[in-house]
Amino acid sequence: MIWARLHAIDERSLHGPTLVESRACLHSIGNTRSVALSMATTWAASDGCYDAARAAALSGVPRTTVYWWASHDVVVPSVSQSKEKLWSYADLMALRIVSWLRHAKHGELPASPMRQVRTALALLAGRGLDLWSEDEPATCPLLVDRSGGIFVRTNDGVVDLRGHPAVLPEESLDLTGPFVRDGMVGPDLIRPRPHLRIVPSKVSGEPHLEHSRITTLTLAALARRGYTVAQIADLYEEPAAVVAEALDLERQLSADLPAAA
What we know:
Elements: H1 2-12, H2 17-32, H3 40-44, H4 52-59, H5 63-71, H6 89-104, H7 114-126, E1 142-145, E2 150-154, E3 157-159, E4 172-174, E5 179-181, E6 184-186, E7 196-197, E8 208-209, H8 216-224, H9 229-236, H10 240-253
Antiparallel strand pairs: 1-2, 1-4, 2-3, 5-6, 7-8
Helix pairs in contact: 4-5, 4-6, 8-10, 9-10
């Protein structure tokens, strides 16, 4: 009975544009499942489905900037380029790279890094590294230097996109770590909180409680309806501290966004 009530709460919010986006997400995810198993990591990052507000909050790039780059072919949304634009998990990485490099070059916009992002993910897959595995270390294996070069940290050291050994750049961007820019703080794109996870191919790439499919959006919706942390924890049989982490993340993601970068 409890689960039916909670499911109904989620379903009631799926209408209008949200329902259109949800259907587009499901269509995209269904297509990616047909790819070869050896490219699972690369294609998993092509999953995830985020509207402009969510892509901005998760990447740490202002919403107006996300829209502007989409319309000027800097970072084009991979899931949907129509009126209802939808970005993928890999797009979040690309947004961070362009933002970081643009600031390094005093406002100059670099070329889209999507090809390099996909090459780096393919290299990870080829070496059997899974960004989203519970068994992998928390250290991000993807790094970007100030020239836009992407490096991969493996068990044997750092390599470039050709797979050749490389020296770790002195100044680099941890691509999936917390991203602070223009007054915004994008969360860690793998572990946004100690007990929360983001997995592109799971629940459309939404942040969720580890070892579950309970999204932070669902818990935040209950909190807005007046449920306390203790009540939500009781409903889902989850520790109150974990529920508090979820609500804290959603407060961060729903904070007012700067108007421009």
